[in-house]
Amino acid sequence: MQSKAAVSLALFVSALATILLVGHAQAQPNRGGFGGRNQPPPPSWIEPGYNDHQHMLDQLGINKLRPGKNGGNQSGPGFDEATANEWMPTLPDALTMNDGTKVTSPEQWPQRRAEIVEDFEREIYGRIPDNVPAVKWEVTETTEGTVGEFPILTKTLVGHVDSSAFPEITVDIQASFTVPANADGPVPMFMQFGGWFGGFGRGDGRLNTNGVAYQALSHGWGYGTINPNSIQPDRGGNALRQGIIGLANKGQPRKPDDWGALRAWGWGVSQLIDYFEAHPDAKVDPKKVAIEGVSRYGKAALVTQAFDQRVAAALVASSGEGGAKLHRHDFGEAVENLTSSGEYHWMAGNFIKYGAADINGRSMDASDLPVDSHQLIALCAPRPCFISYGVEPGDPKWVDTPGSYRAGILASHVYELLGKEGYGTEVKDWVHEPLPEVGTLKGGDLAFRQHEGGHTSAPNIPHFFEWVGEYVESPVRVGE
Questions:
Q1: In sequence order, what E strands does 406-445 have?
Q2: CA 366 to CA 140: how far, in whole Å?
Q3: Which domain holds residue 303?
Q4: Closest CA to 375 of 414, 342, 341, 339
Q5: CA 224, CA 300: separation in Å to the nearest integer?
Q6: Is 475 contained in some domain?
Q7: More confident site: 452 or 212
Q8: Under 8 Å CB-to-CB from 204, ≥6 apart: which residues?
Q9: Looking at the domain assignment, is residue 437 inside a domain?
Q10: What is the pLDDT of residue 426?
Q11: Which of 106, 184, 373, 439 has its CA 20 to 30 A from that of 414?
């Protein structure tokens, strides 16, 4: 067994490699459509010339899509608050049933929640198929080390997905988690979307290099990572007939309401919670797992908590369109940016309809959506959810911080119906409500904080741990 000093050094080196790789991946343009650069040759079960994006357009009857906004020129139409709210009159009410009945008691919420879930599954993020294969977890490495004065125990896991129904596709979920080595019982777990080949099993780069490991341990928490790309590749085209989506479909194309990558990544977290439930020796409390992600992984973190009610808390950072941002707030990244061949793979195929200039002779836009992101946030209630953003230029207009904050204002009504604390009911003109002062934590069980940094969660990590301790009980702090 390696010495504690050697393991600590390995943790740091691999952490540094991870942060560089994660940063590189987030900075690169997503070349997900068929025919884009860096596309590998199609596997044997995909017919030559197959175009996945076009195949979905054909299924939906879409003849023409509207182009997305240009993120390189964030000014003018689409980046002006004065013209951002024309679709707000069409915004659905989170507390009104589909038949018009008002939800006025907590007892009515499960029925209304089910309606919202159905709309999101059918039209936005897609459904997890009933035949999704089982996962068998294997511990591939166990190491000891230290973070500061805290002794730790790290386990590297691989979740082998049963491929017997379609052996051509192999899916091995990569995950890693660390707990205080001297914990007497199960601890809460802070899981992050991240981790890459070469850095797994040694902790996540952003966690270890910005002090999150120390933050977690000093609050009686463990920390870990799950690699989303080991579940479903972060690209469209032929990749959607591979990964867990392709495996469940036995290599065939998606139907319009099949799951996209965001839902698939969340499914992976759910499988990890299953592991914690089945293995108490892991010293992780499966009822106290929090999920964190930034940017596309911020979207995934919110989707994960919204759909899996076992997720105890979430830190949703800089999530933008497809995450906490209101679709109907026409400011920054928009629906059309997620319906193009570059990013459609995050969503269900049906979502592409809302970027259509011509679908069976008509056009559709964000005002036609049956739901919006305030209802996605509301699906997290009554569990604690922390929405995080940075400031410009690091978090530019593109991510639409105001539109995300206002979505939380509307979701607060559901939290308050369930006896929890949101942003408060004093907000009347939510459409034009300004952001709280930078550095101010707004709310309670549903919280919002804009930090001084850019497109990262790092400056809000200490505030998350101070905040979440009010809602997720942790053991006595290690070392006390």
A1: 442-443
A2: 46
A3: 4-468
A4: 414
A5: 16
A6: no
A7: 452
A8: 15, 18, 176, 192, 194, 195, 223, 224, 225
A9: yes
A10: 77
A11: 439
Terminal-to-terminal C-alpha distance of the chain: 28
Distance separating alpha carbons of residues 155 and 305, to the nearest angstrom: 24
**Is 374 within 8 Å of 446 (Cβ atoms)?**
no
Q: How many CB atoms lie within 10 A of CB 476?
A: 9
Helix (H) or strand (E) holding 178: strand 172-180
Tokens 């008002």 correspond to 102
Q: Write out pLDDT tens, residues 206-258.
A: 334 347 889 999 999 999 999 999 999 999 999 999 999 999 999 999 999 99
> What was the pLDDT predicted at 160?
98
- For 376-405, the pLDDT digits (tens) are 999 999 999 999 999 999 999 999 999 999
DSSP 81-95: GGGS-TTGGGPPPTT
The dihedral formed by the CA atoms of 126, 304, 333 and 424, expressed in degrees to the nearest 10: 120
44 token code pair: 């044997």
CA 144 to centroid of chain Cα atoms: 30
Of the candidates 301, 366, 300, the residue with the CA atom closest to the CA atom of residue 91: 366
pLDDT, residue 209, reads: 35
| pLDDT band (50, 70, 90) for residue 201 | very low
Average pLDDT over residues 102-126: 98
User: 368 and 354 in contact (C-beta within 8 Å)?
Assistant: yes
Instruction: Answer whether residue 476 is part of any domain.
Output: no
Is residue 282 within 8 Å of residue 179, measured between CB atoms? yes
Q: What backbone phi and psi angles, to 5 degrees, belong to 285?
A: -80, 110
What amino acid occupies position 178? T
Task: Let me know: does 265 contact 191? Beta carbons within 8 Å.
Answer: no
DSSP 431: G
What pLDDT shows up at residue 9? 35
CATH of residue 151's domain is 3.40.50.1820
C-alpha to C-alpha distance for 450 and 468, rounded to whole angstroms: 17
Average pLDDT in the chain: 89
Identify the CA nearest to 255 among candidates 270, 233, 239, 240: 240
Crossing angle of helices 261-278 and 296-307, in 10° steps, is: 60
Kindly state the average pLDDT of the residues 463-477: 89
Residue in this structure with the two tokens 């010339």, named with its chain if needed: 49
> Which residue is listed with tokens 């010293």?
283
Task: Count how many domains the chain has.
Answer: 1
Query: Is there a domain that residue 176 lies in?
Result: yes
Q: Do residues 84 and 331 touch, judged by C-beta distance below 8 A?
A: yes
Write down the residue that tokens 């990558």 correspond to. Answer: 261
Q: Can you give the pLDDT at residue 39?
A: 65
d(CA 183, CA 177): 14
